[in-house]
């Protein structure tokens, strides 16, 4: 995300004299000029290049790309892009900190979350909303997904509605993180407000909704919540498939908030993470059952990179698609961990090409794949689906996917 220089001046002035909401909109529109500082595509230096990927036993290949900006979707792809876009890293930025908002300009995170909840003191909630609105309006596009974590409708309804009244009119807002979701009404308030405040223009993408699981009640009721919200949106309760009408919003992910979950359940978070293994795995299973992304908990020890990578690797093995970050230095290790290794991409591409060849020329639904170690692996439809998922993640990460000709040269 890139903030215009004029935007920086405007942000600095908010603490002295907060403008009205109409004034904010006019100011934000004026800020959107072509005088933009180019976005730096160079990510932070990788500090742990020799760390082995637990799933493959290999270190980071020299050709593997560093963190990359997600590609912008257009045309008929926008509806699908909301659900399928990469969310390997979701970086929180305190909405009350102009300094940190400016620093987030150079982040390579897939999603930037401007936070209006836990990181904002009660007496700064109002000014933080205005700061976040300006940050949204002054952001250059394309860039990271822009999200806002609002105050919880379940316990702070008035604050949440004030948040929504301020941020929903911004057409640059792409996602809302909803904390402490325990009932479908906690999500319905966002949908009702979005229908009233947002311009719904087909094929404009719907607003992405990320539901935060922060209690045992939330975890156990989440299937009911998802199905009820989808029915309100006119979507199939299990698949989320739209009925054909323009969609104002769409649930895209579940997010595990470990600290709040521990506080509500009495679980003691241990360094080996065993105490949280069940709820993490359970939430990931629910997400996959409903075709949603699963976003893992925050690693609060942001200075211990090997521990962060170990925690992210474990999440990947549990079926998670990404992880929350609370510091910019966490983004690159997280995104590398959730990228497939180059070796796994090559293997997946081989499976897809050989399967296509076998099905077309030999009319077979299964075949043997000769592995690099000399063994043979039986490849059938489940293996094909896994390979397709690996290639899809590699494509979103901007990694090179070898063609059939390139694979033939490797043989």
TrEMBL record:
Statement: the UniProt record of this protein carries the keyword GTP-binding: no
Bias (Low complexity) ranges: 31-45, 60-74
Pfam families the record matches: HpcH_HpaI
Keywords attached to this entry: Lyase, Magnesium, Metal-binding
One Gene Ontology biological process: oxaloacetate metabolic process
Gene Ontology MF, one: magnesium ion binding
Top-level taxon: Eukaryota
InterPro entries per the UniProt record, alphabetical: Aldolase/citrate-lyase_domain, Pyrv/PenolPyrv_kinase-like_dom, Pyrv_kinase-like_dom_sf
Stretches of the chain forming a coiled coil according to its record: none
Co-factor requirement: Mg(2+)
Region feature (Disordered): 1-80
Signal peptide: none
Boundaries of every HpcH/HpaI aldolase/citrate lyase domain copy: 88-328
Protein name: Related to citrate lyase beta subunit
Source species of the chain: Pseudozyma antarctica (Yeast)
